[in-house]
Write the structure tokens for this entry.
Amino acid sequence: MGLNFSLLIVAALILAVFLGVEALGLSFLFGVIIPYLAIATFIIGFILKVVKWAKAPVPFRITTTSGQQKSLPWIKDNKIDNPATTSWTMVRMALEVLFFRSLFKNTKAELVDGKKLTYQWEKWLWLAGLVFHWSFLIVVVRHFRLFLEPVPAFVTLIGKIDGFFMVDLQNVYITGVLLLAAVTFLFIRRVLIPQVRYISLAADYFPLFVIMGIATTGILMKYFYRVDVVSIKELTVGLFSFNPVIPEGVSVLFYIHLFLVCTLISYIPFSKLMHMGGIFLSPTRNMPNNSRAERHINPWNYPVKVHTYAEYEDEFRDKMRAAGLPLDRESSEAEAAATKE
Amino acid sequence: MAKLPKTDELLRINFQPPKTGWQETPVDFKPGTWLYAGKAESLETLGLANPRQWSPEDEDWKLPENWKEIILEGLRERLGKFRSLQLFMDTCVRCGACADKCHFYLGSGDPKNMPVLRAELLRSVYRKDFTTAGKIFGKFAGARELTPAVLKEWFYYFFQCTECRRCSVFCPYGIDTAEITMIGRELLNLVGLNIDWVVTPVANCYKKGNHLGIQPHGLVDSFEMLTDDIADITGVQLDLSFNRKGAEVLFIPPSGDVFADPGTHSLMGQLMLLHEIGLDYTLSTYASEGGNFGLFTSHEMMKRLNSKMYAEAKRLGVKWILGGECGHMWRVINQYMDTMNGPTDFLELPVSPITGTRFENTKSTKMVHITEFTADLIQNNKIKLDPSRNDKHIVTYHDSCNPARAMGLLEEPRYILKNVCNNFYEMPDETIREKTFCCGGGAGLGADENMEMRMRGGLPRANAVKYVHEKHGVNMLSCVCAIDRAVLPPLMHYWVPDVNVCGVHELVGNALVMKGEKKREESLRFEPIGTEEDNDV
């Protein structure tokens, strides 16, 4: 259900741009107004969400420890997976954010012969995830050549490296292909693995279809339909320099591409795609496991009802005396007061 | 009580998800897979909401009229108090990496035991009432209404999670199902939904100082039985002290070890060791529980029970605290105690009076784990050990969830084991250390009425034991957790009948050469010492 629903929505979005631009001539809407709205939604929504998270306190130090703690000096501690200091925690976080270290450990369990549980290293999800995210990042950076004039040197360099391979005498950006391949893998995996399919919501398929659409239209424009890059750059540079223009000769394919990008970025703040911000705040990963050495403060720590020793002794005084246990008082406060009178 | 299926029957696990979507599949309270409801009396002792007689099997759970309002308000409050909860609700991408990391999923095939889906049970309600997308798109955004059926599902599955945190090791965002389960249980408690195997120990602990509800004189008697046994076995008479002011150290073991085998043997080993090195320590009858079932109830309840440790340390004027072999106890001590009930300005930095070692890693909490303490003694050659006395044991080590994943106490017990026994083999890498599998009965799920689910949840652990049993002849599963010592013996009996269970310090007690001891002929279990062959001669 989620799959069909998402596919339908994405198809409708594409159709909307096509009709909008081709039949109704709404180039300004799709080329200027919607992009500005999307960027604003993305920036404001992202910030609001992160601020909302950041405003919630972290009452306890609930680090997930994945290695030996720092205890006795002669026992070698695992500084990365069980960091005791902030700097090693940053190393742990960096490996998590840049290389998906936890996912790298992924295993696949299987019940063999109906009685033996085995665990195999499952690297494909990690690999596809890593390829997907890195490719996406490089593709985004590469696109800065279309937004900025002059083009920064590092953007040109990345483009050169990325386009090192030639196919049919034409430079092919490897990341574009990898992005489409990885997102397709993630989709197929979601559909084919029964458990993953079972947990999947429309919200899981939707971004996959949008990204597939973005990558596909991008590849079509670059290698197959050969759109007019000069006029596209005129439009995008116009957007980024706040002098929006709609040049002649911009292909509808570009408007579809752009609209899907707008859909994606404005969807981010309201969806699971916020994991890109969330990972940095994750309390099981971003704190050192040093709460026995340094006191962690809970801002809302409040007094609770406890059963005091005095109450305990009052209840068990006679039994404690008979068992030869030392007592703080020979009789309860109430009894003592009564005796005085 | 439900009849436990045979092992081959239990092994017929269907991993194929049902035809109906999970939101359309109602929970089935199958006997043997859930726990009895909390007794009204215990709820009253603790001042918990809605004390009454009820059973999860009943159609009507006798909820307060405004139960839905209470739960949603409780959720709102907790979203404001725990960044973890907000993030864990918002950031999951449902990649499924956690799915087959859960022992309950591996043992049952029930998709709602996949950590991701367990969290979705709460997330779906969160979306409906707390997110823009959920409010607008409803079901398409994965949102659903909180209904009595949803609440029943929460009850079943949040009391079918042992808060072991194995999934959180693998999650790319560090989403910790234990946190979700803990908060889920907190919400359930707001309307009087809890299990008796948790809430009655909590009430006992609150009033009497320990989960088992042993009164002070009974506790003294129980310890005397242990010292009598020690005297019989070693010829050495131990002199214990209770509630003694001015002792250097307060020693707090879990109460389970005072009463039931094989925990008693492990506690005997600890008492023998502390006697042998002449540590100036006292036990307390008021703070006579290392464990903390409050952790399985709510953060507030955890704090209420935990407060006794520091209160008693302060009253007795000790310098620092030594804690026994217990699993979840150490999650509380490592990650909650100082934050909740500190600061500990009345205590001093723990220093071993025997070795002079300063336990700098505990400089704020001032509480040392017994295996840290013992490992330090061994490393400094302060105790004499004869590992051959454990030769008939071929030992492996089960990392308890909390010391492994909420502390990282991995090498200390292993170092001790390698010094007190000659035959030690590790289970496969994927089943130990931070990847260790739960015993199936943690987080308060060790009740006998839950036996089928315990055997299912314990399957991955038992399977790994079976592997080393067949490969190396392992016959002893050691651990540092009182819940393990209570629930692993039936688990082994069911899946790997030839393997026994012991605490690490039972083996220490066996190997420990004490001043003035008689020739040891019996182990702490009153079994002949030495290998089978020795005994045949």
Observations:
- Chain A has a mean pLDDT of 94.
- Chain A has 15 helices and four strands.
